[in-house]
């Protein structure tokens, strides 16, 4: 098989089992079959046809090859979602190499760690970014994609299903993120199985790319372009604002959207039956769906607005491992294993469980990854031989499930310290390690609590050798960790409660007490009328009892999901259409209230002429 993008199918070499079925086309072979005039990518007011996208990818591949990039090379793509990212990604694969997604919004230290730990051979950035790692070659994406006088046809590169396709980093239980290696055959099998399961079924559909490139759900989204679907890139402002997202879904005629339950919830009431096209396929994943949201999704399905599939899968098994359709007859479940994977549910003695019983989920098949990059010990711990004795290689997920009738699975949670928050996989020990490494901190424990400022969030408990201000801790962690890993609340303790055997008693740690700045007046006094109205909404969203005009929404523990809730409450209670970006631009109460006053005045229009004020 060759990693090229001709206008015709390429000849396939024999592929050994079980990594890929003999008739499974590589993603690039499928991409070569799509009509050139069809629209491939839409990003804002820019669109690329499949012919143009293929030409750009071939230029990228040729220029990478000139720099010695080929099979088993790793190219770090530090690019925002856009047409250039798609061309660079496909061009990297066309060169036979693997890509490493590095979200430009990550803290600089995090970006540096990913590039260094993966041993990337080259970093591709936008032209306005500083070098991420000294000594590693950097190249502006424009130098890869723009036409040049020396362009010549790119020579085919031999690859196999076992050739590395991408490395994606996940939170690490050792305190360091770990890179998951996935091969080309696994990525190709993912797309084929989404089709076999009736999930990816549109002919020339329009698929929203909603996830961060550093999040493995993005793979499920970009592979759709290889079957001829159009990728519609969703910018950060639209992703964060349910009203803008609902408008984009209709204006761009999306047929498919991948989304987490946290972000699906405020979107549902904004999707109407007369939008188009309907039903919209929602691919929900990243965290568990609660019973209330499950029922709402089922109701929207019965009304013909949605067809919703609940997807579960660890990064180590190429994004999606099980799929369950949401309907009104069932409690939440994660469905059955997808066609190309096999599962075992085992108890603590590594014996298969009976129907109705619970155990840990093990997965095997062609989509199980190679392992963790440069971590042979950790790979051996998680990628194990079948405990049943067949010797087949299986991934031990660490997820507890209940075996339901018809092979369906109910998700019960984790068997270790890993959690899912707003769609992101987080090892609590990684956050604890980052906090404990800060000056003045002697010991740290981080928990996920279901109610922190009105939503699930991380709470950091810390014992210090000296007093450390919460603002300093939050700022230091924000410089080292992705935003979703920074705790929503910090609780200093003199000592940690312990169990009879001397271990920290996490269940005995107190819930965080939310308060505003010590000098803040009550929300019912010392405020202008508009400030008082907004303070009431803040209090409901954040759970704070004292809010003053100079208080900052995010310093009180606000985050992206709470900002969405805030905007929804403002719309409902004040009748003002407030974009989410306005909360980020005006985090102080007095500034946000002033901005809302301006919106109200603009909506009211000029006073009628001929009347006295």
Strand order of the largest sheet: 2-1-10-9-11-12-13-14-15
Mean pLDDT: 85
Distance between the first and last residues' Cα: 78 Å
**What is the count of DSSP helices, taking H or I runs of 4+ residues?**
18
Q: How many strands in all?
A: 26
* Poorly predicted tracts of residues: 6-22, 515-524
Helix percent band: 25-40%
Q: Which outline best applies?
A: globular
User: Rounded to an integer, what's the Rg over CA atoms?
Assistant: 25 Å
Strand content: 15-25%
User: How would a textbook summarize the main sheet?
Assistant: 9 strands, mixed
Given helix and strand content, the structural type is alpha/beta
Can you tag this structure with a few keywords?
alpha/beta; 9-stranded mixed sheet; 18 helices; 26 strands
Please specify the SSE layout and strand pairing:
Elements: H1 27-31, E1 39-43, E2 46-49, H2 50-66, E3 74-78, H3 83-94, E4 98-101, H4 108-118, E5 122-125, E6 138-140, H5 141-145, E7 164-170, E8 178-183, H6 184-196, E9 206-209, H7 217-222, E10 230-233, H8 236-240, H9 242-251, E11 256-259, H10 261-264, E12 280-284, H11 291-302, E13 306-312, E14 322-325, E15 336-337, E16 342-346, E17 358-364, E18 371-372, H12 376-382, E19 383-385, E20 393-403, E21 409-414, E22 418-421, E23 424-427, H13 428-436, E24 441-452, E25 455-464, H14 470-478, E26 489-492, H15 529-542, H16 560-574, H17 580-585, H18 589-604
Descriptive account of the structure:
- The protein is α/β, with parallel strands linked by helices and 613 residues long.
- It is built from 18 helices and 26 strands.
- The protein has a 9-stranded mixed sheet with strand order 2-1-10-9-11-12-13-14-15.
- A hairpin with a 2-residue loop joins strand 24 (441-452) and strand 25 (455-464).
- 47% of the residues are buried.
